[in-house]
Write a structure and sequence with these properties.
Layout (H helix, E strand, L loop, with lengths): L1 H9 L3 E6 L5 E6 L22 H31 L3 H12 L6 H11 L9 H14 L2 H9 L2 H62 L8 H37 L6 H21 L7
Antiparallel strand pairs: 1-2
Helix pairs in contact: 2-3, 3-4, 4-5, 5-9, 7-8, 7-9
Length: about 290
């Protein structure tokens, strides 16, 4: 049958199981030597059976070199794409290269250049920061010097955000100061009102308990009447105390919230500004110590 002949014809071919771009395992037929030159991921080959440890180590080293060679080709492609102004394609090529190599200073250096469009655009700030971490640890001095020579737009952006953060901070503190006196006054009034209800409630409750404990010693029933009267007054006092406590709690919360930057729109804008400024400085410091 055709199927049987196909299997019979292919029985002497070599096969490899590898993961495709979708992360799925697929069976690949190795037809020639050229196929061997491509990098392999999580490779399992029947040909490894019966090999010595030394031979297996040699094959692994060969695969590692293939992967490194492919990574170098991808980095060259990324450089060419950046020269053409195609930074998206450059980022894609470098993303592929990052799967083939690690602790590669040149890769991080190129990633930072690609993500920032040659240090002119930092809108993709998160990726720039990630690349700068690698630059700090692994990039060479010449690569850092080149980044520093291109960093004028970054320094200007840092200066802009420093001024923006200062303006927002002044505005935020002025708003806090303006509200602080009002909230402190409201808290004081609420505390006085709470004390004015809590103290009478406590006194009435204590009296109700005292007379209730003496009910059986009173033959005229006076203590029963006093117990009921004080208990009723204490109940009213309880509701009043709960009401004033709620007002005091709200006033106290306002005092605390006023000191939190995240509680106002200006404060939240300041937090965001500070975070971006810190990230910009982190990028700059990854290749230069000249940061103030």
């Amino acid at each position: 049958m055709a199927e049987e002949r196909l299997i019979d014809d292919d029985k002497d071919r070599k096969y490899r199981i590898r993961k495709n771009e979708n992360g799925e395992e697929e069976l690949v037929i190795i037809d020639d030597v050229e196929e061997e030159e491509f990098p392999l991921y999580d490779v399992v080959t029947d040909g490894d059976d019966g090999l010595t440890e030394e031979q297996i180590a040699e094959k692994r080293e060969e695969r590692r070199q293939n992967m490194q060679r492919k990574a170098e080709e991808l980095k060259v492609t990324a450089v060419e794409k950046m020269a053409q102004g195609d930074f998206e394609s450059a980022q894609y090529a470098l993303s592929q290269a990052s799967e083939l190599t690690e602790y590669d200073g040149e890769l991080y250096y190129l990633q930072l250049k690609a993500c920032s469009r040659n240090m002119t655009d930092f809108l993709n700030l998160e990726k720039c920061v990630e690349a700068s971490d690698g630059v700090r640890e692994y990039a060479g001095e010449e690569q850092k010097k080149e980044l520093n020579s291109l960093s004028q737009p970054l320094k200007e952006r840092i200066a802009t955000f420093e001024q923006k953060c200062k303006t927002l901070s002044d505005k935020n503190e002025a708003g806090k100061a303006e509200r602080r006196a009002t909230f402190a006054h409201n808290k004081k009034r609420a505390l006085i009102a709470f004390a004015g209800t809590a103290v009478p409630f406590a006194v009435l409750a204590v009296l109700a308990i005292i007379f209730a404990s003496m009910i059986y010693a009173d033959k005229d029933g006076l203590f029963i009447i006093l117990t009921i009267a004080f208990a009723a007054c204490a109940a009213v006092g309880l509701f009043a105390t709960l009401f004033t406590f709620t007002r005091f709690s709200d006033a106290n919360r306002n005092v605390k919230l006023n000191e939190r930057d995240s509680s106002t729109a200006v404060g939240r804008e300041l937090i965001s500004c500070i975070e971006e400024l810190e990230n910009l400085k982190k990028i700059y410091s990854s290749f230069s110590n000249d940061i103030s």
